[in-house]
Every structure is written in structure tokens, then in C-alpha cells.
Amino acid sequence: MNNTTMRKMQVLRIVCLCFSLEGYNMSKSSKTERNIHNTQKLQRLLKTLPRFCVTYFRAIEPRTSPLTRINYAYDLRLFFKFIEDELGRNTNNMSPGDLQTLTMNDFERYIEYLRLYYNDESVRENGKKGLARKIASLRSFYKYYYNKEEISDNITTRLATPKTADKPILRLTRNEALKLLHVVGSGDGLSNKQLSYHGVNRPRYRYIYSFFNYGHTYKRIMLA
């Protein structure tokens, strides 16, 4: 993908964000419905984990989003599935103290398992980013019980995290930035449906101008 195509995609993403119905016009009822849906989904996932895990999710609730907790639950479910399927242990009656019975060799096997595993009769593969996220989930999980002094050793601090490549900073040229701001201000080139939201959201467009003109974001975009 060349630089011109990348810049065009960046402009398109920003414009889509500006006029997204979901991003700017989600009603309170829609947010409530989504929260209820995510809460119910998390409750179902927690039933697939050892009972003691509930205290961890209760503790992180004030500082995490429902979606983050769902992702953590998926990661931990996979971890306990590995313990059952590959280590031959019953996880139903596990306690926090049982976490420290796992060895570094067990964790190395788990990381190897994550690279290619079977789930719901399908093959799943994790790249470096997926592996890093799942290791981060485990570290958070173990850290909680270590800080509560329910385990005496947090072995996850010694796990190596796969290095992930930094994403390239996508820069807009001056002309591309001016074109974007022109569309935001005038609505030129938008469909009838987009124009209907353009008028409603006009008071919010000051944030887009600030996006291009202040602080760290300005430095990242690096308008020429």
C-alpha cells in the first residue's frame, strides 16, 4: 500500500468518524441496550470460569469498560481450557492458591498452544499482537490475586511479551487536511443522509478543528 492510498484511507476514516450515526447520535436508550447486552454476555462468560474469578472481575469493574471485561473473560476462558485439555486438571473447584502451582514450563506450553489452537471445531491462530494481549490479561489476573496476598508469587511477571511492530504514523498533506476541513464545514460531497446528520452535529465540529490545531494530536498528524 503506497503513501497516497494510506493517506486517502486515513481521510476516509476520519470523515466516517465525523459523520457516524453510531459515534455521534447514539441515543441513551441505545447505550442502555448495549450495556445490558454486554453485561448479560459477561455474566454468561463468568459462568464458564472457576467461581473465584468473579472477585477479579468485580474489582476491575470501576476502571474498565464492559467490552474490556468481556475480552478478559474470553482470554481467561481459553487459559482455563488449556489447563483442562492440555494439563489434565479440573478447574471447576480451583482456588486462587492453585494458580501458583503452574510452572514456567506450563506457561511456555500455553504460549505455544495459543499460536494455533482449536475452538468450537475451528482452528484459531494468534499473531504477536494476539499473544501480547492474552499475556497482558494473565498478568492483570495474577497481579490482582498477588496484591491481595492470595498467592505468594506472580510468575506472569517473568513471561516474555512478544514484540509487536509499531504502527506507522499516517500523515495528511496540507491539501488533504484542508479538503477534510472544507467537507466538515460545508457538507460538500456528502449524501442526503449524511447531510441530515451534518446539520445536527454542526456544534460538535469545533472538536475536529481543535483536533488539527492543538497539542499532541497536531504533532502526530504533522501537517505540512
Describe this structure in words.
There is one protein chain. It is elongated and about 65 Å long. The protein is 61% helix and 4% strand. It has two domains: 3-24 and 171-221, no CATH class; 48-158, Orthogonal Bundle (DNA polymerase, domain 1). A hairpin with a 2-residue loop joins strand 1 and strand 2. It has helices spanning 3-18, 21-24, 28-46, 53-60, 66-85, 104-115, 128-147, 174-186, 192-200, 205-213, 215-221, and strands at residues 116-119, 122-125. By secondary structure, the chain is mainly alpha-helical.
Summarize the structure.
Helix content is 61%, strand content 4%. It is mainly alpha-helical. A hairpin with a 2-residue loop joins strand 1 and strand 2.
Features:
single chain, 224 residues, mainly alpha, DNA polymerase, domain 1, 2 domains, two-stranded antiparallel sheet, 11 helices, 61% helix
Average pLDDT figure:
79
Provide the helix percentage.
Answer: 55-70%
Instruction: Give the C-level CATH assignment of the largest domain.
Output: Mainly Alpha
The CATH superfamily of the largest domain is known as Tyrosine recombinase, N-terminal domain
CATH topology of the largest domain: DNA polymerase, domain 1
The H-and-E topology, N to C, reads as: HHHHHHEEHHHHH
Alpha-carbon Rg, integer: 23 Å
Indicate the low-confidence ranges by residue numbers: 215-219
Major sheet: order of its strands?
A: 1-2
The overall strand count is 2
Estimate nothing, just give the exact number of structural domains: 2
Task: Kindly name the structural category.
Answer: mainly alpha
What is the name of the CATH architecture of the largest domain? Orthogonal Bundle
